[in-house]
Design brief:
Belongs to the ferritin family. Prokaryotic subfamily. This protein is mostly helical. Helix content is 76%, strand content 0%. The relative contact order is 0.14. Bound molecules: fe (ii) ion (FE2) (2 copies).
Length: 172
């Protein structure tokens, strides 16, 4: 059974993951109308992933005797000054999500809810990866600068971007 405090904290994270999905969907649309198909496909996939993160939490809350709350979401930014700005926002958002996950882990320990603590470890590892991906993209964008040819190649290659982190390297 989930405590009231844990349930509220998990429901808050459900909202954050849902908002992440919307934020990235808006980025996908912006990239699509700008003609960058690779970036757009990448962001559509990110949006789908965030929805998966949300659903995983929804199921967990419901399975443990709680009731997942589906709440109203903040409208995301729909336009950006540049791709650099868009990816900066993506990185900032992932850092914000990591902080929120950390806080959630902290609450689970305070509440002595070790099942939730264990469940959240997946999110801890996922955030290490997502921040690393966002950082790699920003490094590439900074290298390209205003070079149109560079942006063309970046758009072509982003869908195959793989980032190996210390977390993904850890033997099971
Ligand atoms: Fe997420
Ligand atoms: Fe994420």
């Amino acid at each position: 059974m989930l405590s009231k405090t844990i349930q509220e904290a998990l429901n808050n994270q459900i909202r954050i993951e849902a908002e992440s999905s919307q934020i990235y969907l808006a980025m996908a649309c912006w990239a699509e109308v700008k003609g960058l198909e690779g970036v757009s496909n990448f962001m559509y996939a990110q949006s789908d992933e965030e929805r998966e993160h949300m659903l995983k939490l929804v199921k967990f809350v419901n399975e443990r005797g709680g009731h997942a709350k589906i709440s109203q979401l903040k409208a995301p930014n729909v336009t950006f000054k540049s791709f650099k700005e868009m990816f900066e926002k993506l990185f900032e958002h992932e850092v914000y999500v990591s902080q929120s996950i950390n806080e959630l882990v902290h609450i689970s320990l305070q509440e002595k809810d070790y099942a939730t603590h264990n469940f959240l470890q997946w999110y801890v590892a996922e955030q290490i990866e997502e921040e690393a991906v966002a950082r790699t993209i920003l490094d590439k964008i900074n290298m390209i600068g205003d070079d149109k040819g560079g942006l063309y190649l970046f758009d072509r290659d982003i869908e195959n971007l793989t980032v190996t982190t210390a977390a993904t390297n850890t033997p099971e």
